[in-house]
Specification:
By secondary structure, the chain is mostly beta strands. The chain is built from one helix and 21 strands. It is globular and about 55 Å long.
């Protein structure tokens, strides 16, 4: 499969005319690379499509939107959210029929750019501004998961069968973060890779974190992580200071009992 955005006419094996300037698409191919189905996401506001991930016979697609867009399938389905901005995940059959959808909304910009699905779970992540509000509300407080800068990173783990949010996490910095990929291994360990410039802040428990590279400090309630949470260790974090203008990071095993 493939996903992205287009304007004017997009052609694979078939031509797909378009008169709008911001239309998302998901296209499915057979084993020989022949186009089998094509779906548009458009009609409500801005849309940006992210990665794809197969799990069994289901193709999972992620993205972000402003407003509520439509998935042009048979029938046409609204990608509906109660928030002005939302990340979304869509599940398709091998024939391109919509199986499932879920949005995670906010009053500020949010998008899902990365996805990894395996063993009945879907790990998604992307960028957010200010606060991924629906994740914060899901885990019990308006002050949770705050960004330090206009663009920080978030992750969420969903059950594939009903798209229930099992877990939410923010990774923040005093400069914008670029999340480049997420992965869930066979032991349910969560991985994330990306780039940062400044001080990267990740939830941690002292003595259980091993850092390679950079200048790291374990801290309790680091400045900027304010809010309410029933997790007594929510404010404990490892802070990693960058050594260059732009450093790479690899994070393994986010704490699954942390929110």
């Amino acid at each position: 499969g493939m996903a992205g955005e287009f304007s004017d006419t997009l052609t694979f094996d078939q031509a797909h005319p378009n008169a709008l300037t911001n239309v998302g698409f998901v296209v499915g191919f057979d084993a020989n690379g022949t186009e089998e189905w094509f779906r548009r996401v458009a009609g409500g506001g801005e849309v940006a499509m992210g990665e794809l991930s197969w799990e069994g016979d289901t193709l999972w697609s992620v993205g972000g939107q402003a407003g509520n867009n439509l998935l042009f399938s048979s029938p046409v389905v609204a990608i509906a959210s109660n928030y002005p901005h939302s990340a979304f995940v869509l599940g398709f059959t091998q024939q391109g029929q919509l199986l499932a959808q879920r949005t995670i909304g906010s009053d500020h910009a949010i998008a899902a750019t990365h996805v990894n699905a395996r063993a009945g779970q879907i790990l998604i992540g992307g960028a957010f501004h200010c606060q991924p509000l629906e994740l914060s509300e899901r885990f019990g407080g308006d002050g949770l998961l705050l960004a330090w800068e206009p663009s920080n990173a978030w992750l969420a783990l969903l059950r594939a069968d009903d798209q229930f949010i099992q877990y939410g996490q923010a990774v923040v910095d005093n400069a914008p973060i670029e999340l480049r990929g997420v992965a869930l291994d066979q032991h349910d360990r969560i991985y994330a890779v990306g780039e940062f410039n400044g001080v990267l802040v990740c939830p941690a428990i002292e003595g259980l974190v091993h850092v390679v590279g950079g200048d790291s400090v374990f801290s309790v309630a680091p400045d900027g992580l304010d809010g309410a949470c029933d997790d007594s260790t929510y404010y404990d974090a490892i802070t990693l200071r960058s050594r260059g203008e732009r450093d790479a990071f690899l994070l393994k095993s986010f704490l699954r009992d942390r929110r």
